[in-house]
Amino acid sequence: MILEKQLGDPKWVNIATILITTLITFKIISTFLLPKPKKNLPPVIQTPIPIIGGLLQFLKGPIVMLRKEYPKLGSVFTLNLFFNKNITFLIGPEVSAHFFKASETDLSQQEVYQFNVPTFGPGVVFDVDYSVRQEQFRFFTEALRVTKLKGYVDMMVSEAEEYFSKWGDSGEVDLKHELERLIILTASRCLLGEEVRNKLFDDVSALFHDLDNGMQPISVIFPYLPIPCHRTRDRARKKLAHIFSTIINSRKQSGKSENDMLQCFIDSKYKNGRPTTESEVTGLLIAALFAGQHTSSITSTWSGAYLLSNPKYMAAALDEQKNIMKDHGNQIDHDILSEMNVLYRCIKEALRLHPPLIMLLRSSHCDFTVTTKEGKDYDIPKGHIVATSPAFANRLPHVFKDPDTYDPDRFSPGREEDKVSGAFSYISFGGGRHGCLGEPFAYLQIKAIWSHLLRNFELELVSPFPETDWNAMVVGVKGKVMVRYKRKVLPVN
Question: What angle do CA 71, 75, 77 make, to 5 degrees?
Answer without folding.
Answer: 90
